[in-house]
Design a protein that fits this description.
With 475 residues, the protein is mainly alpha-helical. The chain is built from 19 helices and seven strands. The protein is flat, with a radius of gyration of 45 Å.
Length: 475
């Protein structure tokens, strides 16, 4: 019976031609499980981020002096705090608050990216088409949650534009979800196949250059804060509650300060109200009493232009990364231009999200000159990077002048060798073959026929001889 079943189920294909699907079967995910996974990916980051923001506000309000702790108040304040973490501008009693901390934005974006990657793996996502449901569900859930918070805060002192609360969290959450599913669903491979390889190398070098510029800004900010540590210490109040609140506020705005230091290092600088700090210009003004801003200098220094060596080194690093991608110098220059464009675009995004309105007081607004900063960042990448990529990369050796090419030499040498033997053979064959006239002259005369030959034969031999000097013709 077993042998009979094997005969019935035997595969007639020759060995080695079995399809891959037969060798490695794919597990299909049921519709119900797919829905559960997508809902979990959409709701888990929402609940976790909202709970975390509520917990931080509760701890700060509990530790603060001369305040009464309220769990309900912390939960209600967590809604606008959640919107602020997604860079949604708030209105506090008619005073706009647009300069929002970037550290919570990075934290909630990381949560969304991780949830999206986990959901894509659980539903068996392997192609970019499999990432569309995950990204759509996560972005839609954050957009709906944002507009619900905006509508719920309608009668409170904190006002939010519902359209902004719908669009901004949905857009940022969608981008974070795309970043999370990119590797799982093979998006980098699709980009490599669709784009020019030189442009892809330029994008990689540009990402390296942008990260290096951010690192330069962090180094400058750390050095300025360390040199002004006495000012930082004086800004903290003796009580634990107020000091803890200032510490949390400073940590939340730490990425904003690094972006401002990046703009200062590249040249354009930044401004806080009437205060303007630039590499080649300084205008005095009031500074908020926050420890994160304690490193802002009180006057201009002559040695500040020496810091321009840092972005120049970053540009040289980008050029060094691109120097060996191709032997053609013009292709390397094109890759440097792509890297510079990416860095300029990154500076526009960072400068836009790190600044904004700060009420209507003397510290309004906090801004980075986005247009000038992007152009200058592009130049810092293209000029030194192009110089290094052009001269440090390989170049084709020029051909020495006056020397004939190898193909011409071979043709000149081969032509006589092919013609000479043919001429010799023709001449030899012509000499060896006799001419027809000579053969006719040297041919022997036909012998006379015997007496017993037929008359017809004699007639034929006489007619075909063609000898005009025969004795019979004379007679």
């Amino acid at each position: 019976m077993v042998r009979f079943m094997k005969l019935l189920t035997r595969d007639e294909r020759p060995p080695g031609e079995e399809p891959v699907s037969d060798l490695v079967p794919e597990l299909e995910v049921s519709r119900a499980k797919r829905v559960r996974v997508l809902l979990a990916a959409a709701c888990a980051p929402l609940l976790f981020s909202y709970t975390a923001i509520a917990a931080v506000l509760a701890v700060v309000s509990f530790a603060a002096d001369r305040t009464r702790f309220s769990a309900t108040g912390a939960l209600l304040a967590a809604g606008p705090g959640w919107l602020a973490s997604w860079q949604v501008e708030l209105d506090l009693g008619g005073h706009p608050l647009g300069v929002l901390p970037l550290l919570p934005t990075l934290a909630v974006g990381w949560l969304v990216a991780r949830a999206a990657a986990r959901a894509a793996r659980r539903v068996g996502g392997r192609t970019p088409a499999d990432a569309v449901p995950v990204v759509t569900v996560i972005a839609g859930a954050h957009a709906l949650f944002g507009v619900l918070i905006a509508l719920a805060a309608g009668g409170s002192p904190i006002d939010v534009n519902p359209l902004t609360a719908f669009c901004v969290p949905g857009l940022l959450a969608g981008l974070a979800a795309v970043a999370g599913v990119a590797k799982v669903c093979g998006l980098p491979a699709v980009v490599r196949d669709r784009f020019d390889p030189v442009a892809v190398r330029g994008l990689r070098a540009g990402a390296l250059g942008l990260a290096a510029l951010i690192a330069c800004g962090a180094v400058v900010f750390t050095a300025a804060t360390a040199l002004s540590w006495s000012t930082v210490d004086s800004l903290f109040e003796p009580g634990f509650g107020a000091s803890f609140g200032l510490f949390v506020l400073s940590v939340a705005y730490l990425p904003n300060a690094i972006v401002a230091a990046l703009s200062f290092t590249t040249g354009p600088g930044f401004s806080v109200g009437s205060l303007t700090v630039g590499m080649f210009g300084y205008q005095e003004g009031q500074v908020p009493g926050v420890p994160v801003l304690a490193g802002i200098p009180s006057h201009h220094a002559v040695w500040w232009p020496a810091l321009l060596l840092l972005p120049a080194l970053v540009g040289a690093l980008v050029g060094w990364r691109i120097r060996a991608i191709d032997e053609d110098p013009m292709l390397r220059m094109r890759a440097v231009a792509v890297a510079g464009a990416l860095v300029a675009f990154g500076c526009v995004i960072l400068g836009t999200v790190s600044g904004g309105r700060l009420g209507d007081g003397p510290f309004d607004p906090v801004s980075v000159p986005v247009g000038v900063a992007s152009v200058i960042a592009f130049c810092w990448i293209v000029v030194p990077g192009g110089f290094v990529a052009f001269f440090a990369g390989p170049h084709e050796a020029p051909e020495p002048p006056g020397e004939p090419e190898v193909e011409d030499i071979v043709e000149v040498e081969e032509e006589p060798t092919e013609e000479e033997p043919i001429e010799d053979v023709d001449e030899a064959s012509a000499e060896a073959e006799p001419e027809p006239e000579a053969e006719a002259e040297t041919a022997p005369e036909p012998e006379p026929e015997p007496d017993g030959a037929d008359d017809d034969a004699v007639t034929e031999s006489t007619d075909g001889s063609g000898d005009e000097s025969a004795p019979g013709d004379d007679r």
